[in-house]
Amino acid sequence: MAHIVLTYEDYAALPDDGKRYELHEGELSVTPAPGARHQEVLLNLALLLTPYVRAHTAGKLFIAPFDCIMTNFTVVEPDLLYVDETRRQLLSERALEGAPTLAIEILSPSTGHIDRRRKMTLYAKHDVTWYWIVDPDARTIDVDRLEGDAYRHDARLDGDAPRALPPFSDLPLDPAAIWA
Q: What are the pLDDT digits (tens) for 116-165?
């Protein structure tokens, strides 16, 4: 049986039907739209990070759906992504044409295994410096930093005490505001 490899052009022609489509090295990944808890946590994080990014960095913050076209065969949509000033030139009208500085994925029952394995591997391969995995059920955020071609665990937000997470080392994140 022949293996079909899809390209960005194939991806762009997919229907707008509420599902989340991504290309993982030419293979189509389809997941259902995120649920209510996922979206609440996403909005809370975006509301916490946006004022900081605007006031303290020359970078940009984007919320899904927003394509990261890593290659013609790998297109992902992190739930939230940050592009620092060194990567701003990768932004185009259609997408980020390369890797973000930070990709944030919020776990859902249908995506946890993809976010922890396949997407982590893709992000490392394509030079995403920081990767946050947000687990609403466990109320944790795990931060991984790219070292060479693999991630090393760098920090964790858990419990009730506010904590700053890289790459935003001077922004304490209040768990009560994230999981509210």
A: 999 999 999 999 999 999 999 999 999 999 999 999 999 999 999 999 99
Domain of residue 158, CATH code: 3.90.1570.10
User: Alpha-carbon Rg of the chain, whole angstroms?
Assistant: 16
Query: Which structural domain range is residue 93 located in?
Result: 35-179
Nearest to 34 by CA among 120, 118, 130, 104: 104
| 161, part of any domain | yes
Whole-model pTM: value is: 0.95
Residue in 48, 5, 40 with CA at minimum distance from that of residue 23: 5
Which regions of the chain are under pLDDT 50? none
